[in-house]
Each structure stands twice: as C-alpha cells, then as structure tokens.
Amino acid sequence: MALDVLIVDDSAAIRKILHRVLLQADVPLGKVHEAGDGNEGLAKLKTEKIGLILSDINMPNMDGIEFLTRIKGDDALKLVPVLMVTTEGSQAKVMQALELGAAGYVKKPFTADQIKEKLTGII
After folding, report:
1. Which tens digits make up the pLDDT trace of 27-58?
2. Span 94-109, pLDDT tens digits
3. 105 - beta bridge partners?
4. What stretch of H or E contains 105?
5. Which of 13, 45, 49, 64 is a Cys-bridge partner for 57, taking CB atoms 3.0 to 4.6 Å apart?
6. CA-based nearest residue to 86, from 73, 96, 75
7. What domain count does the chain have?
C-alpha cells in the first residue's frame, strides 16, 4: 500500500535528498509533500492524508519539537508516525522528541539503509 509522506525541513536540498532516500529504501511511496517548517507542515496536515512524517528538529518559525507536540496533541493526527531527522548534537532534544512520541530518529548525514532500518516496524 502506497504511503503519503510529509517531509518537513527548512532546507529544500535536504527535502529532495530525503525523497530520493525514501525511494532508494524501497518505501512504498504515494504522494510526497514538503514543508519548510512546522507551520507549513501543520497546514499540509490539514489538507492532506499523511501516513508518515519525517521532520527536522531545528527549523525557523516552528521547530520540530513544537511541531511534534502539536501533532501528538491532535486526536486526528496523533497516530501518524513521526521520524525525526536531525543534525542536533544534543541528546536532550532527541530524548525530548522521543518522550513526546516520535517513532524514532536518524542523524544527518544519513544513508538509505539507515532510513530503511528506522522505518522497519514503523510503517
């Protein structure tokens, strides 16, 4: 079954790389939507049926932690798995994301195999 995915990252280049990595990882992709920050991500979630979210932690306007908090606080969205993709060196922020309900995380730079491994069991 094809999965509609939302990629939320302030870097357009990283969004494109993640899209390519999902293809290389043999994720059964439907539509791939993109957002540049948490605000744009929430707007997409209001109009699209998303089955998986990949989100950066450090972004302007609304960071990944606030974005995750809003998703997990919304009954209509809280079951959508969120994989955090980050350069975040601080374990505290990564642990905070996991405590808030992130399905997992992967650090940049990443490989298709790392993404595939993290998504196994999530999707």
Report:
1. 899 999 999 999 999 999 999 999 999 999 99
2. 999 999 999 999 998 8
3. 84
4. strand 104-107
5. 64
6. 96
7. 1
Which amino acid appears at position 13 of this protein? A
CATH number of the domain within which 46 lies: 3.40.50.2300
DSSP letter assigned to residue 50: -
* Domain range enclosing 36: 3-119
* Eight-state DSSP code of residue 111: -
Any idea what the Cα angle at residue 56 is, between residues 35 and 7, rounded to 5°? 35
Q: How far apart are CA 29 and CA 90, in angstroms?
A: 31
Instruction: State how far the Cα of 68 lies from the Cα of 101, in Å rounded to an integer.
Output: 8
Contact yes or no for 67/48 (Cβ under 8 A): no
Type of residue at 83? L
Among positive and negative, which fits the CA dihedral 14, 19, 25, 31? positive
